[in-house]
Predict the structure.
Amino acid sequence: ETGVTQTPRHLVMGMTNKKSLKCEQHLGHNAMYWYKQSAKKPLELMFVYNFKEQTENNSVPSRFSPECPNSSHLFLHLHTLQPEDSALYLCASSQDQTDPYEQYFGPGTRLTVT
Amino acid sequence: GDSVTQMEGPVTLSEEAFLTINCTYTATGYPSLFWYVQYPGEGLQLLLKATKADDKGSNKGFEATYRKETTSFHLEKGSVQVSDSAVYFCALSDPPYNNNDMRFGAGTRLTVKP
């Protein structure tokens, strides 16, 4: 596989469920990102990991919990979500310290919270 | 803070029409500028980029010129095709790059009719 992959592509979960989104990048990058894309709203940066260390958390509710075990993998653990959390969740990666560090995106996970 | 403003959509054109999507930016430094495209059901793909004033990015018939005097990076294509129907995002990244901070516009949906 090449590029950035995300699984699952679609997820429907109840508000009491616990699920995880997975992202894997095959580009040798060392920075990874989670974004939330909701209808009619700008892309929202949620978390940034740089060399496996979280460097940014944009006031994301604690019901979203990221995990970055290594530079190639990124998870987003979900629990007790709300219907307004339904969105497309995009993962991206970039080669940090490179000018300019364009980001490469995965196809996204379409999440529906019922 | 840094920001990107792009024209609101949706934009509907007939095949072979000329396309312009306006993008202006606000930045404290000397940012790099990008256009990303998102096709239905997919993540964002980098379309083109420019790293300094007067640079022209181009790809797949699309062009954008980095205009520092007008703080703009308008996307153009001389003859659009149905397959160009997608959402287009203007974005910037501003030094220092190790902040991993990329700012996206709200996106402009383009529909091209045969």
Chain B is about 0% helix and 50% strand. Residues 4 and 105 of chain B are 5 Å apart (CA to CA). Chain B has a mean pLDDT of 91. The two ends of chain B are 41 Å apart (CA to CA).
